Every structure is written in C-alpha cells, then in structure tokens.
UniProtKB/TrEMBL annotation:
<feature type="region of interest" description="Disordered">
    <location>
        <begin position="242"/>
        <end position="261"/>
    </location>
</feature>
<feature type="transmembrane region" description="Helical">
    <location>
        <begin position="638"/>
        <end position="656"/>
    </location>
</feature>
<keyword id="KW-0812">Transmembrane</keyword>
<feature type="transmembrane region" description="Helical">
    <location>
        <begin position="728"/>
        <end position="745"/>
    </location>
</feature>
<keyword id="KW-0472">Membrane</keyword>
<dbReference type="InterPro" id="IPR043504">
    <property type="entry name" value="Peptidase_S1_PA_chymotrypsin"/>
</dbReference>
<dbReference type="InterPro" id="IPR009003">
    <property type="entry name" value="Peptidase_S1_PA"/>
</dbReference>
<dbReference type="InterPro" id="IPR007111">
    <property type="entry name" value="NACHT_NTPase"/>
</dbReference>
<feature type="transmembrane region" description="Helical">
    <location>
        <begin position="676"/>
        <end position="698"/>
    </location>
</feature>
<dbReference type="Pfam" id="PF05729">
    <property type="entry name" value="NACHT"/>
</dbReference>
<keyword id="KW-1133">Transmembrane helix</keyword>
<feature type="domain" description="NACHT">
    <location>
        <begin position="343"/>
        <end position="462"/>
    </location>
</feature>
<dbReference type="InterPro" id="IPR027417">
    <property type="entry name" value="P-loop_NTPase"/>
</dbReference>
<dbReference type="Pfam" id="PF13365">
    <property type="entry name" value="Trypsin_2"/>
</dbReference>
<protein>
    <submittedName>
        <fullName>NACHT domain-containing protein</fullName>
    </submittedName>
</protein>
<feature type="transmembrane region" description="Helical">
    <location>
        <begin position="838"/>
        <end position="864"/>
    </location>
</feature>
<feature type="transmembrane region" description="Helical">
    <location>
        <begin position="765"/>
        <end position="789"/>
    </location>
</feature>
C-alpha cells in the first residue's frame, strides 16, 4: 500500500480529518470527553486520564463536509506518569474521508527555544445546541472543534516537566466550578509540522490563557521497553537525540550578492532543476514509501580521521571550543551540516549503508531552506575524476555542463556560466563516492580537496578514506561522521507496512510477521542472526522489500533457513540475485503498469549482466550510450565499421552508376547493371578498408565523444583557423590516395574486363579525379572544423536528447559532403558534357559523397555513427543488447534498476553492478577481466535464434505494449 502525499499537512500542522473526539463510558459516574489525534493508520494518541477506568471508548471523526463518523476504540497502551495513552481504532475503516492507507506517520520534535504552536480539540466552552434536534423538543448538544494558536517555551513548568502553552483565552468562564478547557485534554500540540506534546491540564491559577502539555522530550524518562512500544505503536523515535529540533539551528545569513542578471537567473534555474531532478529520483526509488527508514549517523569515534575541532569550528586562536553534537538521523542531515562553521563534512559508511540516500536528502532539505545568496548543492559522482590529470574545478565544470546544459552558455565575464558559478562560490559540491576514484589516486584526491577551502560534503567507504588519510593527512577543516547500521525496530514497521496483509493471522499480520518475531524473540538463532546482520543496511532492506513485499508468492520466512543460506554473504547474494526477477515480474501491478513495456526477466537480466560487465571492464559506474560498443575487441569493431562503410558506399556507388550509364552510354541496361554491381563491390571494399583502418587508428584512444554543431560563420578565432588547416590537410592526405586507388581499380580491373563506359575522362580525368576528391574531402573536414563547436560529453539532460543532437550532427555532415563535393563535381563535368549530364553527374557524386564519405566518416569518427554500428546493429544482432537500447535503459530506470545523472545512467548501487558483473564473468570465465579499464574484450557470440525461439520480435525488442522513447537512429 502506498500512502498518498500528505506532506502539506505534515508541514503545516494538524489535518482536521485526523482530529478525534474521544468519548468514554466510565465504570462509575458520568463519562469523560477528550481529544486525540490519529498518528498513523489505526493508532490515536490522547491523554491517559481521559480513558482511565473507561468501560468503552468511542472515537468521533469529522468528515470534510462537516458530518461525523463514530467508531469503537480500544486502549492498547497508557502511562499515568506521562499522562499519555494510545488507542486503537477497532474498525479500521474510512474515517474523516481518509482510509488507513492514506495516513502518513507524524513526526515528533523537541523545542530548544520559544516557538509558535497549535492544537485542535473539543473543549467544553465549544458546547453548542444542535439546531437539527428532532420534533422541536429539548435540544441535543454537541461540542465543536477549537483550533488553538499560541506559543510555548522550554523554560516554563520546569519542575513539573510540562510545556506551558499561552493561548487566546475564552471570552468568559461559563461555569466557575469547572474549566472551560475540559475536553481539550489529549489534543496533539503541533509546531513546525511536528508533534511536540499532548494537552493534559489546565491550572485554574494560571488563568484562562494557559494550558499545560505533556512534552515529547519527557517521554524518554519511560523505561526502554515502554519507549520501544511507543516506537512500534506511534513511530516515536527510539532515542531522544533522534527527535527533530525546533526551531532548527539558524544558518549564517548570507547577503544577496550583487551578481550579473545572467548569473542570478542561472542560480535560480539551477536550484529549480536540482530540486526537480532529485525529487523525481527520490520518488522512483521510493525511499520514503511507506515511511522513511531510520538511517542514523554519529560523529566517528576514530579521532585520527578528522581535523582539530578548533579548525572545524573556526575558533579564534587560544580557544578550545570542544566537539560539535553531530549525532542524528537522516531527516536532520541538513540541520547538522548547517551547524558546522567550516561547512566541510565527510560521511563514512559501508556499501549500501545509505550514503547516496543521505546525499539526496541533504540536497532536497538544503534547497527547501535555502536563502538568497546561499550556495546551490549539486551532487557529483567522484568515480570519473582523475585528480592527476584534471583539476577539481575543471572536472566539476564539465559535470555541471553535462547535467545542466544551460550552464554551458557563454558568460558576459568570459568563459561559460558554469565557470562563473564555480569561481564565485555559488555551488555547494556534494561529492559522492570518494572510494570510487581509481585505485592509487585517493591520496592525490585528498590532497587536492585539502588545498581548497570550498565548503563540501564528501561520502566514502571507511576503508578507502582511512587509507588515504594515513598516506596524506585528514581533510582540512572537515568533520567526519559515520552511518550506523539499522536495527530491527528501524525497519520492522517499514517492511510491515510495505506488505499486503496476510490471509491468515488477523488483519494486522503480513508475510514479514514470523521473520520479525524471530529477530526480536530469538536473536541468537543462527538464521535470525544472519538476517539481522544482512538487514543492517538500507540497500538490503530495500532489496528485501522489493523481493518479498512488492512481489506476490514469495515468503520471507525462507531467509531464516540456514540450510539454504548458511551465511550472511549467501543471503546478500540471494537478495541481489532475486532483485531483477522481482522488478521484471511480467504480472502488471501498480499505477502506470499498462503503459510499461513488458520484458522477459531472463533476457533483461542477461542484458543488464552484459552492461555491468561492460562497466567493469571500463572501470567506471557511468553507463553512457556512446561507449556501449567499446569493450568489444578492436578488430571486431574495425570489421563492423568497415563493413557498414563499404555497404553504404558500395550501394550508393553501384546504384548511382546505373542512371549515368543508361543516359550517357548506348550499351543498355544489362551493361549498366553489371558494371554497377562491379563498381559498387570494388569501390565499397576500398572505402570500407579505408574507414575500417581509420576507425582502428582513432579508437586506440578514448571513445568518440558526443558533440553538437554551433554555426558561427564569422569571428573565427586563431584556434578555429588552426583547426581548419589541420583538418583540411588530413582530408587532402586521405582523399588523394583513396581516389588514386579507385582510379587504378577502374583502369586496371574494370576496363580490362570490358566494362569501360567511356566516361572516365582519359588521362586528364585520371589526374583530375584524385585532386577533386582530395580537395573536396579536405574542404569538407575543414568547413566542419570551422563550424563545429564540440562541447563536453555531458551536454544534455537525458541520453535520448543527446542521441538526437548527435544524429542531427551526422546528418549535417552528410549534407556538407553532398554540397561541397557533389556541386563542384557536377559543375566541372557539365562544362564538357552539357548541363543535363552535369546535373546528373553532380547529383550522383553528391549522393555518393553523402552516403559514402559522409556516412563513412560518421561511422568511423563520430559517437552517433559508432553507436549505430555497434550498439544498434551488432550488439543486438548477437543478442548482447536489445534492439531498443535507449527504451530498455529508460525502462530499467523507471523500475529502479538504474538511476540517471544527466546523459548517463548508473546502476542503483555499486553492489548490484558488481554482482551482475560477477554473474556474467562466471558464465563466461574465458572473458573475465584481470585488468580494470582494459577495453579490448568481447563476450562470446550468442546466436540470435537462440534468443528468439517462438517469441514475437516485438517481445524481443521489449515493446509488447507502451511507447518507446529515443530509439530511432
């Protein structure tokens, strides 16, 4: 069950549909009336004295139309000392217009300074006659609600330990012997979107404008067992230090900067884009559904890992300020970071411990409280940074342009906007994955980070960070905290509420009931101990939820079986292996399932295994479409690219010769067809060999990066003029010998076989053709060098957008080849043969140049061409990837297998990528990589027929239903 979004009510205060009037029948005397609040699906928080000695309890809810719904209640927990009680709704039906599935849990807080507060209850002074009394007899009476606004302070009622709440008093005391506030007891007291107490008393000596409330902070004087029970019933945090602090610590006020308008607009737009991006990612990953996991952190006990507190707290010389209180939970990370004067924090955690979720939560919370002039937090995945070759600012600039392309626009101060934002301190770097930097570079990276005084938040696994600190020194001015493991109490409610009720065992039982009972009651049992150790990380809890809560027919009790899972490692492998079959369950469930492409689980898993092995070979976590074919053997790639270039040039040349020979010679169709086939075959072989070898030469370095074309005819810089000259000479040097080989084939092979069409121009034509081709090729490459404005590979916000941009670029290349070579060739030929033949020859030469030269160039030298040749043709043909690759990646992202950062994808966690790569290598041991980053390998050929069977082609494409996105080439 997925709760609806009730964030508005959580942030603003009490939801009127969850306010309760508590009506009791006593063993002796008149019954009592009080107030309460529905804190979760079936629990109502109230005051203990309201329900003490009650024979029965009725809970009355208000509906949106002003009517009431009354249900029986049952007392399940009470404590007279703190004067709080928890009632259970006996019939968990829709109340107040809300059903149990729509009830978001409340948050609890403690106050550190005076705060505004509010409460909704049913006091006696709101007693009203019911105008709708039947038969005009004695009127019936009812109590209407009262929304009390006031202020409270932590320093009032110190001895009693209650909150003193100052509110607007009633106009008069209707009955001197009784308090007009009777019936308000049990109302939840709210501040800052959190419950801070429960109204319990009105001392007449305080006057009519003072109430007393049992404050949440004092509830932790209960026994650990009682606190644990409240945690289970109402979601009270297990420890007092996990309560939200109100008001939050105020960050230093940053004055609005006197920025240029373009910079201010870029900062505002960046803040919106970052917030939108990570809100969507948080929703896809369901990190807060049905409620947030209680991820906790604490200051690291290893003193050698962080700097002196004097440096962290920016204390004056000669002072010893002492440590900062850095313990807390996930929803306090922005608050804790804001309390660090140096604004430099390192978060350590093992794999799957919640580092990525923490960074996501930090960014969203920081943005929600961001003041004008504050930095904008941006998450950077550190795995692609090489500190030995690229400065931190240059690398971050490239990352910014990748994910937010508007930051690549020119700035009035020179350079691009991303550079200006970095130089002027408008970016707060959230550096995720220090441990993912290439081995041997951690020390260099830490030295670079220490030399900069930029505020930052850095995450890492403890081992890699500790080794880097030992080799260099601690990160300057940075505090260090560690993520703690989850306990049974932290995830019990999460797994319980994420599961469907069990068929047997009562309405509140789920498939997780027996497992959670074992973990609590028999923690020493080997099976329970294994499960408890595995579920200490949010990653494994999320996998367990996906496998056993989101998919029908799976019983988590099998996790306790030590004959199947003898160790925690075996359990982890099981959850990782079962994750993909669960998310690719062909049974359509959930919202939007009808529009989601249906994928065969085994095929989807094999494709993802190939992708994981591909990333493992490249030594990266970034899955980019332009690198998908780069882990094939270079010789295989050369053959594929050469074959396609030969096919493109051979077909266009052969077909282009047909109309020329039919119009310009009297030898008839048979001669034209035979000559066209021969010329197409031989010329295609030559051109295919040239482009295949050219690809092999350029592919020894990094893969071709996507770029976009910026048309800028005037104002060429010295660098652009130099690029024109270099490319012109390259084209001339490649075009002349290629054309000479084609002339030799025509004169030495085709003519002796009797297929001379008499249109070669003799010796003049033999000398002229290589010169035309060479000059034309050089001119095309030079013009493209003049017009092209390559940008960083991270220039688009999605893979399909970047793919479309580069497809247009190759089309522009082909048009340039057609115009630059075809038109001059036709003009020169027409001078001697006439305008009709010249037009025809120009058209033929132009088409051949476009599809032979332009497309061959695109296949060999551009990212899109290599994508088409390798990832859209060869890899799907051999069964390693689906035909609709981008659609498959988008779908995997929607299912939570991948996450997206700009134009690249990543597996949702490095553990999942490692697991899939290991499975792939186990299936293909001959192709296991022993050298990370080596890009010269190839999985075994998988015959297409073995993947197809009797399945329709649409199923193989993964497109049984629903639209595909970004798949056209």
């Amino acid at each position: 069950m997925t709760p609806v979004d009730n964030r508005a009510s959580e942030l603003d205060g009490p939801d009127p549909r969850r306010v309760v009037q508590v009506i009791t029948t006593q063993r002796a005397g008149a019954g009592r009336r009080g107030s309460g609040y529905r804190v979760n699906g079936d629990a109502v928080l109230t005051a203990a004295h309201v329900v003490s000695d009650a024979v029965s309890v009725r809970l009355r809810f208000l509906t949106e139309d002003g009517d009431t719904t009354e249900l029986p209640g049952e007392q399940v927990w009470a404590d007279s000392a703190s004067d709080i009680a928890v009632l259970k709704i006996a019939n968990n039906a829709s109340t107040g217009g809300l059903c149990a599935a729509e009830i978001s849990p409340v948050r609890f807080a403690r106050i550190a300074r005076p705060v505004d507060c509010e409460a909704v209850g049913f006091p006696r002074f709101k007693l009203r006659p019911d105008a709708a009394s039947p038969d005009h007899g004695a009127p019936t009476w009812y109590r209407d609600s009262h929304h009390a606004h006031g202020r409270t302070t932590p320093l009032g009622n110190l001895r009693a330990g209650s909150l003193e709440i100052s509110v607007y008093p009633p106009e008069y005391d209707p009955e001197p012997g009784r308090s007009p506030w009777e019936g308000m007891s049990g109302a939840a007291v709210w501040s800052g979107g959190c419950v801070i107490g429960v109204v319990v008393e009105h001392h007449r000596s305080d006057g009519l404008g003072r109430l007393a409330a049992s404050q949440v902070k004092r509830w932790y004087r209960l026994t650990p067992t009682q606190v644990g029970r409240l945690n289970e019933l109402i979601g009270l945090p297990a420890r007092a230090d996990r309560l939200t602090q109100l008001p939050p610590p105020s960050p230093p006020v940053t004055p609005e900067r006197d920025d240029a308008p373009e910079v201010r607009e870029a900062v505002r737009k960046l803040a919106r884009e970052v917030d939108t991006q990570w809100c969507r990612e948080e929703q896809r990953r369901r990190v807060h559904t049905p409620h947030p996991l209680a991820v906790r952190f604490r200051c690291t006990p290893t003193r050698t890992l962080f700097d002196h507190w004097e440096n962290i707290r920016k204390a004056p010389p000669g002072t010893e300020p002492g440590p900062l209180p850095l313990d807390g939970r996930l929803d306090r990370i922005a608050e804790v970071y804001g309390s660090i004067p140096s604004r430099r924090l390192v978060v350590l955690g093992e794999a799957g411990s919640g580092k990525t979720i923490l960074t996501l939560r930090f960014v969203l919370d920081w943005l929600s409280a961001r003041a004008p002039g504050d930095r904008v937090p941006v998450i950077f995945g550190l795995g692609s940074w090489d500190p030995s070759t690229t400065s931190l600012d240059d690398w971050m600039c490239g990352q910014l342009v990748r994910d937010y392309p508007f930051l690549g626009s020119p700035s009035g101060h020179g350079g691009i906007v991303a550079d200006v934002l970095l130089d002027e301190g408008r970016i707060l770097p959230v550096l995720d994955g220090f441990d993912e930097i290439a081995g041997g570079l951690h020390g260099a990276a830490l030295r670079v980070l220490s030399r900069t005084a930029t505020p930052l938040l850095l995450t890492s696994r403890p081992a890699e960070y500790s080794r880097a600190v030992k080799k260099t020194r601690v990160l300057t001015d940075a505090a260090v905290m560690e993520l703690e493991g989850l306990t049974v109490d932290d995830y019990a409610g999460y797994l319980h509420r994420a599961s469907q009720p069990a068929a047997e065992g009562g309405p509140h039982s789920t498939v997780w009931g027996p497992v959670l009972a074992q973990l609590r009651e028999r923690p020493g049992n080997p099976g329970a101990a294994n499960v408890a150790e595995v579920l200490t990380t949010p990653l494994m809890v999320a996998l367990a939820r996906t496998v056993y809560s989101d998919s029908a027919g799976h019983d988590p009790s099998e996790l306790l079986d030590t004959t199947k899972f003898a160790s925690p490692e075996a359990l982890q492998d099981h959850l990782l292996a079962a994750f993909l079959p669960a998310v690719y369950d062909p049974t359509p469930t959930g919202r939007g399932a009808r529009h989601r492409p249906r994928r065969h689980p085994e095929r989807a898993q094999r494709w993802l295994e190939y992708l994981a092995a591909h990333l493992d070979q490249l030594g990266t976590h970034n899955l980019a479409w332009w690198t998908l074919g780069t882990t094939m053997r270079r010789s295989s790639r050369m053959v594929v690219v050469g074959f396609l270039a030969a096919l493109a040039f051979g077909l266009t040349t052969g077909l282009g010769n047909l109309p020329v020979d039919l119009v310009a010679t009297p030898k008839g169709p048979r001669f034209a067809i035979t000559r066209g086939l021969m010329v197409g075959l031989l010329h295609g072989l030559v051109v295919g060999l040239v482009f295949g070898l050219a690809y092999g030469f350029v592919s020894t370095s990094t893969p071709a990066e996507p770029s976009r074309v910026r048309i800028q005819i005037f104002g060429g810089s010295r660098e652009r003029r130099a690029a024109f000259a270099r490319r012109f000479m390259l084209g001339l040097g490649a075009g002349v010998p290629t054309a000479l080989v084609l002339v030799l084939i025509d004169r030495g092979v085709i003519e002796p076989l009797g297929f001379d069409d008499g249109l070669n121009g003799g010796l003049v034509g033999a000398a002229q053709f290589p010169l035309e081709v060479g000059l034309g090729t050089g001119l095309v490459l030079g013009v493209m060098a003049w017009l092209e404005a390559p940008i960083d590979i991270k220039s688009e916000v999605s893979a399909s957008d970047l793919l479309s941009t580069n497809r247009r670029n190759v089309g522009f290349h082909m048009l340039a080849w057609m115009l630059v070579i075809g038109l001059p060739s036709g003009f020169v030929y027409g001078l001697g043969a006439g305008p009709v033949r010249g037009l025809l020859a120009g058209l033929v030469f132009g088409v051949e140049a476009a599809f032979g030269g332009g497309l061959g160039y695109g296949l060999s030298f551009t990212a899109w061409g290599q994508w088409v040749a390798l990832s859209r043709m060869w890899l799907p043909l051999t069964g390693r990837l689906p035909w609709a690759v981008i659609s498959f990646l988008d779908d995997a992202h929607e299912r939570g297998v991948l996450r997206q950062t700009g134009a690249v994808y990543q597996f949702r966690h490095a553990r999942l990528q490692d697991h899939l790569a290991h499975v792939f290598q186990a299936r293909h041991p001959a192709h296991r990589s022993s050298t990370p980053g080596k890009t010269d390998w190839e999985p075994p050929f998988t015959a297409t027929a073995s993947w197809l069977g009797d399945t329709p082609q649409s199923v193989i494409d993964g497109n049984l239903s629903g639209p595909t996105h970004g798949n056209g080439i």
